[in-house]
Amino acid sequence: MRQIKRIVILTGAGISAESGLGTFRDEGGLWAQHKIEDVATPEAFIRDPNLVHRFYNARRIQAAESKPNAAHDALARLQTGFPGEVMLVTQNVDGLHEKAGAIAIHMHGELSRALCAVCDHRWDAPPEMSVGESCPACQQPTARPDIVWFGEIPYHMEQIIEAIQTCDLFAAIGTSGQVYPAAGFVEEARMAGAATVELNLRDSDMSYAFEEQIVGPASKTVPAWVNRLLG
């Protein structure tokens, strides 16, 4: 059995579903009411910034009212209790990992942050953003949600890839395996010789690439898996 000193964990929308935050696939949720190309691309923001702000204002309020579940709590416990390194990378923008006490790298941005479309300055977003808000750095009326939209490059990619290429264990929790580059992380890890495990409610588009699969709700499977790692 290989010794595990470095762990990289990727989390997706599935880990937050039990906290009441919908995934892309959920029927009746916020995402189901809008087409991705209408609310999650730079072109959408140019075309209809009011709609985009309304969408993310609703998501920001929903996230602020949500609480972490047992899966978030378990990963925070793993970061604290594991004798080696645990890097937590999330596609989620909800901030629930931080509410649970974990440190997460947000590759797709954060609902709680704002971004200037001109100078790239970032700051804490108000509960509701509106069209024409000024950037506190350059004073231009170009404030937008600090979210990585489709067609944009995710944040911290060099740091993430370096960690994946040097880890002993790569885990994906609650991810669909549909959104790249995150969907390709498991193959990067395998090529580097890491063990790989997927924890998910059902098969993802990348399930075939993992050595081990643990199926079930994250609030049950993640704490049990963390207990196993912590011995």
Q: Can you tell me about this structure?
A:
It is a single chain. The protein has 2 domains: 1-21 and 68-108 and 154-231, Rossmann fold (3-Layer(aba) Sandwich), CATH 3.40.50; 22-65 and 110-147, SIR2/SIRT2 'Small Domain', CATH 3.30.1600. Helices cover 31% and strands 20% of the residues. The protein has 8 helices and 9 strands. Helix 4 packs parallel to helix 8 (218-230). The longest helix is centred in the N-terminal third of the chain and has 17 residues, at 49-65. The relative contact order is 0.19. The model has no long low-confidence stretch (mean pLDDT 93).
Task: Give a short summary of the structure.
The chain has 231 residues and is an alpha/beta fold. Helices cover 31% and strands 20% of the residues. It folds into 2 domains: 140 residues, Rossmann fold (3-Layer(aba) Sandwich); 82 residues, SIR2/SIRT2 'Small Domain' (2-Layer Sandwich), CATH 3.30.1600.10.
